UniProtKB/TrEMBL annotation:
GO CC terms in record: ATP-binding cassette (ABC) transporter complex
InterPro entries per record: LptG/LptF_permease
Subcellular location: Cell membrane
Keyword Transmembrane helix appears in the UniProt entry: yes
Protein name, as recorded: LptF/LptG family permease
The species this protein was found in: Peteryoungia ipomoeae
Pfam families: LptF_LptG
Lineage: superkingdom: Bacteria
Membrane topology: Multi-pass membrane protein
């Protein structure tokens, strides 16, 4: 790589990291705060919460990275143009490839990195997060650790305790069980305890109220009563893995006996092709950015800031691809769109670079902007007290 190419890549990488890290930190913080209940509800330690937060971070990289790359490329090239560096490069007779080649190579490298992230690292982290959350909530005692507060264990089952004691002891239990629409049960007990294996809640000195569909209420007192938690604990301790949680090898050859796959096989097929298409974004977005601001332009030329134009085009490609993915989950015939959208945009950008043609707004849009510019200048001149 030539000295000038290294210079350009170094500046782009610096600006890329400057944009990537703060945005990634903000999004990561919002995602972590959504799971703060892992500590408040299940009594997990701060170390467990930080481990969970660390595993969430890689799942966000593939989404933020392409847009940070757009910012890095457009901001660097715009600054070089304002400093007349691009004009000097053109005046020296250097080919346009001296700017395009290193940046496209950077796009290829980051596309490979994105493929590794979405294909292997991200699914592995998602699995670990789901397993950790499922394990944390598997124990009923942990779920109701906060005293004097109703907790929904599952739809239709609520538990409240007055006091939590040592050795898994509980005082002042209230359980409302309306999972069976034919029968509503309310349990009261002075004290109780969850067994070590979490399979049963043993209540002592209490009563159970049973309400029939006709409104009749039956009250039964008991000295000792065991509330079965075996199915509940097993279900809460088992993580359910969906298409986004599966690694690339599973998506290439799904298990036909997998329960989630049998429910929605279209999700798995669409997810497989989404990962391949998403990996193209860094390269495509670099090509789009170069098309918009890869050449020297006059400071007097009226145009939108190149970063705004590049981000709008990149967001359009991103959202169209995601919309095609959601449609392909129900209709497999739309899967080619996942590749057609980014590839078509990238090819158009590369052709524009090859032919050295600048993208232009339609004539009526440019005329409208010109008229708006004249009107704004007249208004400013009028307020300044001098003729336009």
């Amino acid at each position: 790589m030539k000295i000038l190419e290294k210079y350009i890549v170094k500046r782009v990488l610096l600006m890329f990291l400057t944009a990537l890290l703060p945005v990634l930190a903000i999004i990561w913080t919002t995602q972590v705060l959504q799971r703060i209940n892992l500590v408040t509800d299940s009594g997990q330690s701060a170390g467990s919460f930080m481990l969970l937060a660390t595993m969430i971070l890689p799942t966000l990289v593939s989404t933020v990275l392409p847009f940070a790359l757009v910012i890095g490329v457009t901001q660097t090239l715009t600054t070089m143009n304002n400093d007349s560096e691009l004009a000097v490069i053109d005046a020296s007779g250097a080919p346009r490839s001296i700017v395009n080649k290193p940046l496209l190579s950077l796009g290829v490298g980051l596309s490979i990195f994105t493929f590794v992230m979405v294909g292997f690292v991200e699914p592995s982290m998602r699995v670990n997060v789901r397993q950790m959350i499922a394990t944390a909530y598997a124990d009923l005692l942990s779920s109701v650790i906060e005293e004097r507060t109703f907790r929904q264990i599952e739809p239709g089952l609520y538990v409240q305790i007055t006091e939590r004691q040592a050795s898994r002891g509980l005082k002042g239990l209230l359980i409302a069980d309306s999972r069976d629409p034919q029968t509503e049960l309310i349990y009261y007990a002075r004290e109780g305890a969850v067994e070590e294996d979490g399979k049963a809640l043993v209540m002592q000195d209490g009563e159970v109220q049973r309400k029939a569909p006709d409104g009749e209420v039956t009250v039964i007192r008991f000295d000792s009563y065991a509330f079965d938690l075996s199915e509940l604990s097993e279900e809460r301790g088992q993580a359910r893995f969906r298409a986004k949680d599966r690694d690339l090898f599973f998506l290439l050859d799904p298990d036909p006996l997998d329960e989630e796959y049998r429910k929605k096989p279209g999700d798995y097929h669409a997810e497989l092709h989404r990962r391949f298409s998403v990996s193209l974004f860094p390269l495509v977005f670099v090509a789009v950015s170069l098309m918009i601001c890869g050449d020297a332009r006059s400071h007097r030329e009226a145009r939108l800031h190149p970063m705004a134009s590049a981000l709008v085009l990149s967001l359009t490609i991103f959202w169209l691809t995601n919309y095609a993915t959601s449609m392909a989950e129900d209709n497999g015939a739309l899967i080619p769109l996942l590749y057609a959208i980014p590839l078509l945009a990238g090819m158009m950008a590369l052709v524009s670079l090859k032919l050295n043609k600048r993208p232009q707004l339609p004539r009526f849009v440019r005329d409208g902007l010109d008229r708006l510019s004249v009107t704004v200048r007249r208004l400013l001149s009028r307020f300044a007290g001098r003729p336009a």
